[in-house]
Amino acid sequence: MACGESSSVSSHPESVPAGDVSPVEAAQAAEMACLTRPDGICQTGLSFLQLGDPMDLALPEEMEATEAGARWLEGGGFEWLERVIQLPEGRLIVEGSFLDQRFINDSLRASCVVNRMRIESPSFSAAGGIGVGSTLAELAEAYAGSDVGLIPIPDYDLLDVQPDTSHIHFLIPLPATLPDSLSLESLDPAAPVTAIVVM
Question: N or C, which end of the chain is more exposed by having fewer CB within 10 Å?
Answer without folding.
Answer: C
